[in-house]
Amino acid sequence: MTMPLLTSLLGLFILIPLIGFALTMLVPKKNEEAISWIAYSTVGSHMVLAWIFLVLWLIGGYPTLETIELILYNTESYKFFISFYFDKITAVYLFVGSFLCFLVTVYSRWYLHRERGYKRFFNTILFFFIGYNIIIFSGNFETLFIGWEVLGITSFLLIGFYRERYLPVKNALKVFTVFRVADMGLILVIWMSHHLWHENITFSKLMHPELVAQALQGNETLGILIGLMLLLAAAVKSGQLPFSSWVPRAMEGPTPSSAIFY
User: Fold this and answer.
1) Which of 86, 110, 128, 183 has the fewest CB atoms within 10 Å of its CB?
2) Which is nearest to 40 in space by CA: 129, 124, 103, 131?
3) pLDDT tens figures, 176-221
4) Please, what sign has the CA dihedral across residues 173, 174, 175, 179?
5) Is the pLDDT of residue 40 over 80?
6) Sign of the CA dihedral 109, 111, 112, 114?
7) pTM score, two decimals?
8) End-to-end CA distance of the chain
């Protein structure tokens, strides 16, 4: 009983910040109290749900959960779908991410008081939170790429938050350009994975070494390239050498956004 219930709840972690984002878009930009209240209520309710979910998950023996939320394209030979996946790694990121985002949201309520882009900041933070949850719950590379792009867009918007200044806008464009290298790496991973497995491969299948070994027989070069492109995407996005030059430029954004991102 617990496992089907928990599996059905996975989509809520994307839906809650999406609703909060939509609500803040409707509030007039001068109504700071309503904007901040919607933002930290959204993130706070998400955090409470996450903690309840994690307790039930632990009581249930911390099973691995997987669900296909949306089939976008379906033929006899191929399916393109949005998939969510939950395991121990997801649990850690769900707990830490929801807690940190709640702290940043509450702190930003006063830190950005009377700032010209007050509404824009909270809209972007909630949009970031949507992308973050899509990434940690992603069950295949296609779902991961959606969240990956959302995080790339929000990082660009937050770095260039003070858009009336020259340097924040310039550095935001530089970071956005560097992130495209990571995007190309991930797109190549998706493309090569489809050539290797001839299907929309899920992360749950990749957890079985025998299936991976069988697919790699005679395709060792393709497997190595997939690993290298994954390494490239991760190195660029996390600011590892030789791609670390964008990290100090990213500090041009508001302090709370720098805290939650880096």
Assistant:
1) 110
2) 103
3) 888 999 999 999 999 998 888 887 888 888 888 888 888 788 778 8
4) positive
5) yes
6) positive
7) 0.91
8) 39
